[in-house]
Amino acid sequence: MDEPPGNSGPADRPVAARTVGAYLAAVAQGAPTPGGGSVVGVVAALAAALGEMVCALSAKEGPPGDALRSALAELSALRERCLALAAADEAVYAGYRVAASLPRGDDAERAAREGALQAALATATETPLQLAEASLVALRALVAVAPESKKLLRSDVEIAVLLGEAALRGGLATARGNLGGLDDPTREAFAARADALERAAARQRDEALGMLAHW
């Protein structure tokens, strides 16, 4: 029997339209969706939102510099993008189930079904990788925010960095969970991309936390 990829499927309401309590209840209910990939998107959005808060509060101390204004705009856009990707991840599940339900009575049908499954798995891998990439951009924005922020907000910046790293690594875990079902060279390309993101994440986290340690 074909197993669905390690992503989430469609929910009754978009992620951004649910309350926190409703979303958590949906995650906990024991259905396939929303699952890990969707949760990664929400965590990434929280990292961006916390960074936005730091920017907004720091700007109240005086006219914000170019770095703070730029980071605020970037983090705001990232928050929306990560919520959209969380919803997209949920929709991935439905696409896979449709592909898995295609007929396989003869060679032509089996070939068509396998092609549809490969396309669905590629989407199921691409979406969390995009979330990981967005999380990396958020980490870089947070590095830019730190020197411009109020010192009283140090812990908020640190929490945002840790959330961003968790989201990035969660996106990689979700993507890598789907690699086994993909054919080469698609699998190899996704794996190389994930490895590069992991290395970049480690560097960015170390830079951010090192900066905070000497703040």
From TrEMBL:
Q: Which InterPro entries match?
A: Cyclodeamin/CycHdrlase (IPR007044), Formintransfe-cycloase-like_sf (IPR036178)
One GO MF term: catalytic activity
Extract the Gene3D superfamilies matched here. Formiminotetrahydrofolate cyclodeaminase monomer, up-and-down helical bundle
- Start and end of every Cyclodeaminase/cyclohydrolase domain? 20-187
Supply the name of the protein: Cyclodeaminase/cyclohydrolase domain-containing protein
Q: Which organism is it from?
A: uncultured Thermomicrobiales bacterium
Q: What is the lineage of its organism?
A: Bacteria, Pseudomonadati, Thermomicrobiota, Thermomicrobia, Thermomicrobiales
